[in-house]
Specification:
thioredoxin-disulfide reductase (NADPH) activity; seven-stranded mixed sheet; 288 residues; alpha/beta; flavoprotein; FAD/NAD(P)-binding domain; 24% helix; globular
Length: 288
């Protein structure tokens, strides 16, 4: 049986971090999943003037203050990617590759899902299109795999699957230098559509095309509706009430993922509310 936490927080932006601080203060057993380096959206901000108490701070400076606060509170971010979350009744199962975590309540603070889906992506999801290369790697032994990656962190997934697949194409959607093993072919072109009848057969790009058996799209975050089956989504955002409660009992959401305005101080406030609501929910469950 997996160890069960009181709370799992998915996302390490201002909403997720604020939720973690309050979970710590309320002495709950929790995990926060995300990136220790935070998002490029935060660190690239030139100047922030509407975050109370931090006048004329850059995004990088604000990120440093966040890190200092986490260290003082002895909070660490788990750098693992949650691929799916399932409501199991009295708890949630969070899937990370071969592992599973359990939590009584969850807070989704995954930010905004940027960019629209590729043509054919939704139709061929589970039929050669996936979002976790290491999860499905055994299915592609001696086959051709294409990886579309939006983050340099995902290069490790490409290296892993190259040891199993016959051929791996890697399409970086980021500007940093690509450092993958020599067996992987780097393709610098823009994906347009995914083609195939009952399964993936081809990826069409702006200036070329690739015959492939599988395509993994490694975005910074999975859209909430794909992450948590049954979650109510309205206008591409998670629907919540004033207590940051979603339509699923025990599931809360905060920050950009619940809608505009997309501002750090708003996200931090919602993270605070979501944590307090989650704590009340956890306490009510423990009394039963």
């Amino acid at each position: 049986m997996s160890e069960r936490f009181d709370l799992a927080i998915v996302g390490s932006g201002p909403a997720g971090l604020s939720a973690a601080l309050n979970a710590k203060i309320r002495k709950k057993k929790f995990m926060i999943f995300g990136n220790k380096d935070f998002s490029s959206k935060l660190t690239s901000a030139h100047e922030i003037n509407n975050y109370l108490g931090f006048y004329r701070k850059s995004g990088k400076e604000l990120g440093e203050e966040f890190n200092n606060h986490l260290k003082e509170m002895d909070i660490s971010i788990t750098e693992e990617k949650i691929n799916n979350i399932y409501a199991m009744g009295e708890y949630f199962a969070l899937m990370v590759n071969e592992k599973m975590y359990e939590a009584t309540a969850i807070i989704l603070a995954t930010g905004v899902q940027y960019g629209k889906l590729f043509d054919g992506e939704e139709r061929l999801l589970g039929k050669g299109v996936g979002y976790c290369a290491t999860c499905d790697a055994p299915l592609y032994k001696d086959k051709v795999v294409t990886i579309i990656s939006y983050n340099k962190h995902e290069e490790a997934e490409a290296n892993f699957i190259s040891s199993i697949a016959a051929k791996v194409y890697y399409i970086p959607m980021y500007k940093e230098e690509v450092e993958v093993n020599s067996a992987i072919e780097i393709v610098r072109d823009t994906p347009i559509s995914i083609e195939g009848e009952d399964k993936v057969g081809k990826l069409k790009l702006k200036d070329s095309e690739i015959d492939t058996d599988g395509i993994f799209i490694l975005r910074d975050s999975i859209s909430p509706g794909q992450l948590v089956p049954g979650l109510k989504i309205v206008d591409n955002h998670i629907e919540v009430d004033r207590l940051m409660s979603t339509n699923i009992p025990g599931c809360f959401a905060a920050g950009d993922v619940v809608g505009a305005p997309y501002q750090y101080i708003k996200a931090a406030g919602e993270g605070n509310i979501a944590a307090l609501s989650a704590v009340n929910y956890i306490d009510s469950i423990s009394k039963k």
